[in-house]
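Q: Could you fold this chain for me?
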Amino acid sequence: MGEDLGILDGPSCPPGGTRCLPIARGDTAGTSHPDRYNPDTWTDEYIHLSQPGQREIQGDLLHDYKTNVDSYTTWQAWLRRHKPPTLVVWGKNDPSFVAAGGEAFKRDLPDAEIHLLDAGHFALDEKTGEIANLILAFMTRHPA
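A: Sure. Below is the predicted structure, expressed as structure tokens.
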């Protein structure tokens, strides 16, 4: 690679001199296990987002996110009509997508299986085994 990407050794890196990006407070807000985050994920994400054109792409996505809210009534009607088996696994401490968002699925899908875990935004990094078990159990109860 050769170029300086601002990657450094620091307190968010595992022992042994592994190089990684410092994890910003916003990235771990609400986490119960910041030690379970793979520092390579942050490095990979930084490299990807540093590519030409990504700033504009990410800005467009963020700006377009507001159209999701306008689509909620359509999605909710589809869920009520089709009633698909639904598993929702949510980090209850996620500051971006609050727990009420996960619980809201019950309004349209009363039989939805909702799990609010003691995790932040990246629940899968924190609760890998627990989430895997929930998925496997759900799939056993709802085979395709």
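A (continued): The domain at 25-141 is CATH 3.40.50.1820 (Rossmann fold).
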